[in-house]
Every structure is written in C-alpha cells, then in structure tokens.
C-alpha cells in the first residue's frame, strides 16, 4: 500500500492545485491585486514607474531627450512562514485514503494561513503567531511616517471614505480597490437614505464584499488584525489605493515535511509522546512601490 506521507517530495503548490490557488489568493491583498502570485526565492527588484509619463514632441532633425533620471528600484523583501501540526503516530499505519485526506486538509489550511500571513505582515508588520511587531519587517502599510495617507475615522463613515478618495486624488493617484474590516463595512452597510433604504446595498451586511461605489472591494478581519492584535492596538478600518503599486508573490517551492524524530516545536520528543509532526513552509514577499498610492482610515487606538 502506498504511503502518501512518505513521498520523497510533496510540494504544496502542486498538490490539489485548485484548492491551493483559491485559498492562497483568498486573502484581502490577494483579492485586490491582480495577477498570479509568483516570486523568485531571495530578493527581487522592481522598477517603479510613478507619476505621469510625458512624451516629447520631436521636430524633423531635432535631438531626442530622455526622462529626467532613471526609474527607481524597489526590492521585494521575502519572509518564511511555517505551520507545524502534531498527530498520533497511528497516522502512519492509516490507509492511503485517510492520509490523503489529511494532506488535502493541511494544504488548504496552510494556503489560508499564508494568505492571512501576507495580509498581517504587509498591513501591520506583525508576526501572525504572536501578534507582535516583527523586527524583520521594515515596510508595511500601517507603519508610522511611511508616506501612506491617513484619515482618522469619525462618526460619519461616508465622509471618511470620501476623505480617502480626496487624499489619493491629491497625491495624483486613482483608486483601483478598497479593503474593509467587516466591522467598518457593516457601519457603511447600515447607512440609510432619506427614505430609510440601505444606501449601499452592494455591501450586504458587511461580509464577503466585492464592490463599493464602483470600486472592487474586499472585507476581512486581517485589515484590522483584530484576531491577532490586542483590542487597544486595533486601529486600521480600511485601505483605499491604486493596487497596481503593490507587488506580492509566493515561491513555488513549498514543501510539506513529515518529521518522525526529535522535538521540532518544543513540545517534547516525538517518540516519547507517540507522535509525528507534519510541517509546511512557504516563502512570500511583497513591495509597496509607492506609499502615496494608498490611504488608510484608522480609529484612534484605545488608551490602555
């Protein structure tokens, strides 16, 4: 009988590819940024073309000039994340169908965890496991003083959104999408017109949002990080931006590893506890090509 867990190489991206692709792009940033996720392991440079390009009218026999300066480069920083699960070692003598089901579940869960990690690292700069700011993360949307626009949330959520748009327009950008925390999307969803009707029916109840006032939209709790952050630290309610100014990707080499010996996670020797561990690792990276292409609506952090 074949043993799927003992396969010499299990690559998450090649296993149940449909489920992987759906879940890895199910995060908020994955929904708003078009294109297939792809990334070279290591650092990748992107030329950033910001501002409005201007063509030069050239007369017969006249010299041609170039744009002032060269387009700056932005480096995509990469981060490794891992997820380790422990199981009873009886898993090793289970039938092939059961083991395959375990692997399928791990692939889907891992893809979801990685998509959430991308959101949480890129928006908040935190380690998803601990909820603490990670010193290795030097660039993220909510970092103070990074050039991303800021709007302080008020009791008038409609006005807040208009201020986001005004902020982007002033920076010379057009919004291509907006990300909402579900709580904030719910506030907007409950706004009524003069006749008592829902003013923005496309928001439903604030969940599973796909568009808002003509903009592609997405809602999820990674926008605020409310599952990972302390309540007093939750501030981000929404991000509007030109999402072409954000690049991200996931390395294709993403192994699923069976560990039968040792103490891989600090919870005790596997043989002593009659367990095996299965570990999934992945590398993702991203770059905010121009912070001015984004604007955040935030609530003032609660005092502790």
Structure in words:
This protein is of the alpha+beta class and 304 residues long. The protein has a single domain, classed as phage-related protein like fold (Alpha-Beta Complex). Helix content is 21%, strand content 23%. It has helices spanning 17-24, 28-32, 96-124, 157-170, 182-189, and strands at 44-47, 73-88, 149-152, 177-180, 211-212, 215-219, 236-241, 246-250, 256-259, 275-288, 294-298. The strands form two sheets. Strands 3-11-7-4-6-5 form a six-stranded mixed beta sheet. Strands 1, 2, 8, 9 and 10 form a five-stranded antiparallel beta sheet that branches. α1 runs parallel beside α3 (96-124). The radius of gyration is 23 Å and the shape is globular. It starts with 16 loop residues before the first helix and ends in a 6-residue tail after the last strand. The model has no long low-confidence stretch (mean pLDDT 84).
List the helices and strands and how they pair.
Elements: H1 17-24, H2 28-32, E1 44-47, E2 73-88, H3 96-124, E3 149-152, H4 157-170, E4 177-180, H5 182-189, E5 211-212, E6 215-219, E7 236-241, E8 246-250, E9 256-259, E10 275-288, E11 294-298
Parallel strand pairs: 3-11, 4-6
Antiparallel strand pairs: 1-2, 2-10, 4-7, 5-6, 7-11, 8-10, 9-10
Helix pairs in contact: 1-3
